[in-house]
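Hi support team,

I'm filing this because I wasn't sure whether my run with GLP finished correctly. The job status page said complete, but I'd like someone to confirm that the output block is well-formed before I use it downstream. Pasting the exact inputs I used:
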Amino acid sequence: MKIIIAKDYEELSEKAFEIMRGVLENPNAVLGLATGSTPLGLYRKMVADHLENGTSYKGVRAVNLDEYAGLAPTNDQSYRYFMRSNLFDKIDIDLNNTYIENGLAEDEAAECARYNAILAALPRDIQLLGIGANGHIAFNEPGTPFNSETHVVALTENTIEMNARFFKTKDEVPRRAFTMGIKNITDARKVLILACGANKAKAVYGLVKGEVTEDLPASILQKHDDCILIADSDAAALIGE
Ligand code: GLP
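And here is everything the job wrote out:
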């Protein structure tokens, strides 16, 4: 794993953008994208670059990690809405080329199979990831098998609490979500994982130096051929780099 320590969030976002720009040299790149607060700085830089330098996304396809079960794409807490308001509606990507699980799907098994087929048809050049404080990636909580594909998960209390800040009350946080599985994530050619803040330091330690174990889902990335971690100094505090 290549490790880049950034002095602050701005530098983390800039370094992430440099990597993304390299991938976008292919005008038909397939991007695996993520939600959460950590990638927002990168998305702002992608938007600025599109506006200032004309980088085009017309041929780009984007596949997202996860979506809350029960939320419509128009719900302002859905990840589809997040992607539109923070990135897709600000660049020239064709929305028909953007994929995310359908949170309203009634037949969940069929929806997971549909999404796995999309992932198989669109090999990703890069998969962007954040990391949960408990080491989760996408919504793959501790204990998720490394060979998992798209599935529906019950969110842990820890994740519900962490994500409650985006909702009016904790009760509004959906309890379940669709997520790419860990195998889907590691199938991407390149993985870029971003970690910011002291509350991620333990998870980053496990990601970089811990045992490769399903108890810390991100630890599987130690075995990926082309994984880059960009952490700010707070998140990197325990890895001694
Ligand atoms: C959520 C998402 C993850 C994300 C994590 C961390 O649980 N499903 O994909 O990595 O939150 O979010 P943040 O970047 O806001 O810390």
